[in-house]
Amino acid sequence: MDGGLGVKRVIIVWLILIGIVMLGPAAQANNRLVVVGDDHAYPPFAFLDQDGQPSGFSIDLICAVADVLGWELQIELGSWAEIKDKLHTGELDLITGMFYSSARTQDFAFTTRHSVASGDVFTRLDTKISSLEELRGRRVVVQEDDIVHEYLAEQNLDLDFVPVANVAQALRLIASGEEDFAAVLLIPGHYAIHEYGLNNVRSNNLQIAPSDYCFAVKKDNIVLRLMLDEGLRIVKATGKYDEIYATWLGVWEQQQERDWQRRTKALMISSAVAVVVLVWSLILQYLVRLRTADLTRANARLTTSREDLFYANEELRATIQQLTATTNQLVDQYEQLQLMEEALSEEKDLLRTTLLSVGEGIVVTDYSGRVVMINPVAQNLTGWPNRTALGHFYHEIFPGEHARVVEQVIYTEQTIEIEELTLKVGDEESIVACTIAPIQDLNEVVRGSVAVIRDISEATRQRREIEYLSFHDPLTGLYNRRGFSRELERCDQLSSLPLAVIVGDVNGLKLINDAFGHACGDELLVKVAKVLQSAVGDSGIVARLGGDEFAVVLSNTNLEVAQGKIRELKHRAQRETVQSVQISIAFGVAVKTQLDQSLQDCFNLAEEHMYQDKLKWKGS
To answer: How would residue 460 be classed by pLDDT, with cut points 50, 70 and 90?
Structure first.
């Protein structure tokens, strides 16, 4: 086997084992209404009691599972055919008791079994059969569409079926003499005999179609099946399952055991009588042979017996030696198994320690999205300590746009990448990238998810700073020529017309630099930028194109309005001074009114008008 592949398989197996070990009872209820159904006349598994309330082993069991999963139940009992149809049409979410068969998997999905039951052939006390072959060609009463009916239909026994609605009705037909044979489930049959006093009816110990009894859901409802499996495991682990089983099924298993003991006792008595008769007959024959046989033949038989005993002792000695060797071998294998378990435990601890100590955040959930492990890095990033996070849903720890991403990963069984996610802990914010992947067992069944969280706050800040500087002037904070070009292209569309382009140039910047230094020149540029930005606000685009050249773009602005804006800009600028020198700006404007008009031509025209205005300043 390839070494890399082997390592990968070991990691996958241990991730699955950690997920399974960490899957625990949920801390909060799902608050989900689940509609369940079953047969209304199938005691002791499911039936309506004297008060018309759902009762029985399957009903108590689904109630216990719903309690640990936090479900609210709506229970509907009816005829078996009706209940199966409702599960097909989606009126029911699940059936509390259905026997597993390969044919039924075409329409339903089954949980792990919660009990095992088999059928039997019931007759009156004066009738007994020892095999199904004795039923060939006969009339047999069955509960319509149950597992025994399906099994017998596949046996090619040429049976004439008499289908009825329930087990009690089938056994009443036998007790009344209307029919001779009924093939139904064993425990419901004994329940009916006891409940309705059918004392002339008996079972025949044929054990027909022993099958797993399970919860059943629609074939495509995998998530519900997995949740039921988990709830069933919890109910069994708490001992609640044993309590329910003893209440409803244990008493009938004990009844069957007592019936078997009575039959065994009767058989033993009959066998003992037969043995006594046989022994007495053999003794008489032996006495006859003693009288008629001579001493030589007796001695010969004695010698042969001694030889047989010797060989038997040798065989027994060899067998004992072989058993001793086998025992020693088993002891060695047990010791090796203990060593392997210790090694596996050490590997498991090492893997858990690794997950807790890696530099990236790790969050592991079960298949319902509840957190079962969160390492220290993830605790710091989310502000959720381990004792608080465990048992909470993923979307409670990561609210917002990507809150349901774990549900998507588990449903689609696909890895999802989140490039940027903002987490806030108190007054501090951090930006993270997140990868969420499903955790699958060896049968490729999703058991949960694992999220790997990387802090990219510093890298994001640097990227944003670089992006800002690439489009903005560092001195004034206005758009630079590159940013101006990008914004100008964005505005170049029909909805922005008429589009006014204003070009401005600061008068006397070189004089200020020469007379007072470049620091005063920079102060002049900053004040010009503030004048332009305060006058334009959010209604337009303001940029410093380089040196002392500025530009303003105003959408949906005609020439008259643009000229008014220039007068406002000049007036605002004249109220500002640098080193007692009044600020002066030359402006030019051009307006694009048609979509096919060149924006560059419009900009060039505005620049020409600006130079004309600047000549006026120089002339003055």
So the answer is: confident
Query: Tens of pLDDT along 421-441?
Result: 888 877 788 888 889 899 988
Question: What is the phi/psi pair of residue 415, to 5°?
Answer: -75, 140
Rounded to 5 degrees, φ, ψ at 107 are -120, -20
Dist. CA 230–CA 224, nearest whole Å: 10
pTM across the whole model: 0.39
* CB 158, CB 152: distance < 8 Å: no
DSSP-derived secondary structure letter, 472: B
Q: What is the pLDDT of residue 232?
A: 93
Question: Which residues pair with residue 161 across a beta bridge?
Answer: 140
How far apart, in whole angstroms, are the C-alpha atoms of residue 127 and residue 121? 11
Asked if the structure places residue 561 within a domain, the reply is yes
Looking at the structure, do residues 375 and 483 belong to the same domain, yes or no?
no
Domain membership of residue 505 (yes or no) is yes
Q: Which range of residues forms the domain containing residue 515?
A: 472-619
Task: Kindly state the average pLDDT of the residues 155-163.
Answer: 93
Q: Determine which of 222-231, 464-473, 485-494, 599-608 has the lowest per-residue pLDDT on average.
A: 464-473
- Domain-ending residue, one of 461, 480, 497: 461
For residues 605 and 500, state if they share a domain: yes
One domain, residues 535 and 400: no
Same domain, 422 and 521: no
What is the pLDDT at residue 277? Answer: 58
- What pLDDT is attached to residue 61? 94
> Which one has a higher pLDDT value, 110 or 350?
110
- Start-end of H helices in 146-250: 147-153, 167-175, 186-196, 222-238, 240-245
Q: Who's near 324: CB < 8 A, 6+ residues apart?
A: none
Residue type at 520 in one-letter notation? C
Integer Cα distance of 579 and 596 in angstroms: 46
Contacts of 118 (CB under 8 A, 6+ apart): 185, 186, 207, 208, 209, 210, 211
Q: Is the pLDDT of residue 19 over 70?
A: no
* 310 occurs within a structural domain: no
Beta-strand pair 585-592/499-506: antiparallel
Percent of the chain with pLDDT over 70: 86
Which amino acid is located at 491 in the chain?
C
Indicate if 362 and 488 belong to the same structural domain: no
Let me know whether 431 and 476 are in one domain: no
Asked if residue 525 and residue 454 are part of one domain, the reply reads no
How far is the C-alpha of 189 from the C-alpha of 418, rounded, in Å? 59
**Model pLDDT, residue 350:** 61
**Per the domain annotation, does 21 fall within a domain?**
no
Category of 224 on φ-ψ map: left (φ > 0), alpha (ψ -120 to 50) or beta? alpha
Q: Number of H helices and number of E strands within the chain?
A: 20, 24
